[in-house]
Amino acid sequence: MEGVGKIGILGSGSWATALAKILLASQKEINWYVRKSKNVEQFKDLGHNPNYLTGVKFDINRIHFYSDSDINSFFRASDTIFLVVPSPFIKQFLKRVRSSSFKGKLIINAIKGVVPDENILVSDYLQLVHEVPPENIGVVAGPCHAEEVAKERMSYLTVGCFDIKKAELLSSILQNNFVKCSISYDVVGIEYASVLKNIYAIAAGICNGLNYGDNFQSVLISNALYEMSNFVNTVHLVKRDITESVYLGDLLVTAYSNFSRNRTFGNMIGRGYSVKAAQMEMNMIAEGYYGSKCIKELNKRYQVNMPIMNAVYKIIYEKAPAKETMTDLAKLFK
Fold it and tell me: Where in the numbering of this chain does the Glycerol-3-phosphate dehydrogenase NAD-dependent C-terminal domain appear (predicted)?
């Protein structure tokens, strides 16, 4: 394997499509697993993803598509694989992959979520279930909305790897004239921060739906950063600067942007939608919904004071009234 070798993308949503655009800026070709063969055919006919970021045109000759039962062929043909499917489906995808197909592969988590039911990080799941060694696991995150990548607006990513040399290699292929890329060894911290920022974005959305103003939103996010820092430093204490873009920057863009599906989900809850109704109308995955349950379960062990996370959990899982819950939460802020 020279450098990062042949690159594969597992998933076909908006973020997967944005990553494909980023990677094809530096790579001659990529492998791309799209679950449904009919979507592959439409993709080839149209020259763009038929369902997401339809304005992004691709040179189909530079993409080797795989679909349906070809997932093991996709793994065998790829040296570096970006996991970019919604977290509720990651187990479903990976359980179809033979153990031998993981050997020697560099697996990059770009999901920004957890493995539901297991309540563990994707990096932990890869090690425990699929026996991927830690030096072959990485994460990519940061304030980088797919919709802005599509428009080539300046965006920022951070690649975290347990093997920092591999992070440097990945950074070199992700960086271009509209994407800047940093490196980090804090795989676990980045993964946890990516989960937490989605929860806090739901909180911001709920408050927006309840007509809380900008002043309160700023205090909410200030407290959310403090809460994030306390949790991440408790579960994985390494030297990190929580104000870096992969932590604070990603929190800010997810909490404030209209592109944020977690904020959108929270906004609907704040306006009176039930969880089920909001999920059905969005027709997209809000990762913070699953993340809040995971962090709630994990925190039984760590006992970190997390009033914002607890408030979101109560509203979306225990059907606590949004207005009363947020009113109580507001009393704790300064």
Answer: 186-326
